[in-house]
Amino acid sequence: MYVQPYHSLGRALAFVAAAAFSLGVVVGALAVWFVLGQSRGGESAAVSSHPWRVQSALPEPSRQPATSPAATTAVLASREPASAPTASVAAAPGEADGAFRTGGGDAWPESLTFAVDPAIPLAPPARTERLLLATRTERVEQQVEIRRGDTLLSILLEAGVGTAEAHEAISTLRGLYDLRRLQPGQYLTLALERERRSGGELRLASLSFALDARKEVELSRDDEGHFVVRAVEREFAAETRLATGAIEDSLYAAALRQSVPESTLAEAIRLLSWDIDFQRDLQPEDRFELLYEELVHAPSGASLPGDLLYLALRMDRRIVEAFRFKTRDGQVQYYDRQGRSLRKSLLKTPVDGARLSSRFGNRRHPVLGYTRMHKGVDFAAPTGTPIYAAGDGVVVMAGPYSAYGNYVRIRHTREFETAYGHMSRIATGIRSGVRVRQGQVIGYVGSTGMSTGPHLHYEVLQAGRQVNPLRVTVTVAEQLEGRDLEAFRQRVADIDGLRRRLGEAKLVASRVTP
Ligand SMILES: [Zn+2]
Fold this sequence. Notes:
Blueprint: H1 7-22, E1 34-37, E2 44-47, E3 54-57, E4 74-77, E5 86-90, E6 113-115, H2 125-134, E7 137-145, H3 152-159, H4 163-174, E8 187-195, E9 202-210, E10 215-221, E11 227-233, E12 237-246, H5 251-257, H6 262-272, E13 287-297, E14 302-314, E15 319-326, E16 332-335, E17 344-345, E18 355-358, E19 361-364, E20 371-374, E21 377-380, E22 386-388, E23 393-400, E24 406-411, E25 416-423, E26 425-426, E27 435-436, E28 441-444, E29 455-462, E30 465-467, E31 475-476, H7 482-512
Parallel strand pairs: 1-5
Antiparallel strand pairs: 2-3, 4-12, 5-6, 7-8, 8-9, 9-10, 10-11, 12-13, 13-14, 14-15, 15-16, 17-31, 18-21, 19-20, 21-29, 22-28, 23-24, 23-27, 24-25, 25-29, 26-28, 29-30
Helix pairs in contact: 3-4, 5-6
């Protein structure tokens, strides 16, 4: 069990909760939800911004299973859940494999999970009685996993829905959704209601399940009690997470073990690859830190990867850090602590599928017939092949330029520029003053100007003079200035604050995790 210090307290609360439930109590304002849920193995502890709220996060199919205590990922919910405190009580032993589908076969006290904010007492008796009078219906929400062999009908009947009602619900759903697409392992959220006075029949209030990662199908009732079905956009709340640890075998493996989403990790590795030779530079004891967002759909627990906000790699002699930051003109980039963009190499070959057809240096000029300096490199490629910006920067020239034909020049830093000649066409929107990103299409291969056939003439200029693009490894770093730099410093302070808070939350989490 993962919340050792609370185990006995938890057991006590569970019986209080169970007793309260049997009385059919729903506490209004302080809504204590007794969810007849199902226990599942492999819960992972997550710690929200409140240091004492320990929640059991149900693992979703795509998630990594919970890992060792050292690998706890701290979570800071940017939005507090609306219904605190919550206690979720597993189905009683007699109901195992019954309507409420306990999984895994855990003994009942083991399957108890709860989240309690000590600041809010659980249902003081006097108050409970008064509130009892205010509620006429009791409502039970449950999540049901679809198992092999299940049908929606069998699931609804098992949950206690009447046959006629179940058929009505299914035929309404069929209007929007092909039910054969439901897969084992998928979850349904059912809400059942029971009128207190009539004291019997359970009524299906709503049913929902995922349509895709961003939408779900929701069956509910209109004012007259008829079923209606619609597709609703899921609401995702961004949660900020911190993953830290030693590299051990590899950064990739170490971060994956902490459930860092793969796309977030790919971004981190892409950023580090500007600075790090993964084969040579990294040692097993080097430490990494990733601060990132995950978009979480609270009711289902589904999540989508969000932005990587910060990364750090602490090596023996140096530290690499990257802060995500959006400049005032809307460009998102990663910067070091001083506000320099992460160093980036220029693309060596800024055109796809091209053959190097002429090198930098002295050569006999193919058109003019005498020997002269070739101040760039030529890449032969068919007319119309896209040409990419070799690095992030600002277009300083775009248009016909004497012997170069259709020509684009990009300034990457105060020192370095790249130039591209003989284009058949300059890409739409590429003109002087426009910002471009590395890899963005700026034009198409052609043979305009003084040229014997379709090719890209490519130059790298250092302080205004052409240098050999193949010999110099040009790395460019942009320095934030003025108001951008001011805003960036604030951003760095904010991120450092988040890292501290989540780091402390992690410590608490590792203490309550035996
Ligand atoms: Zn050339």
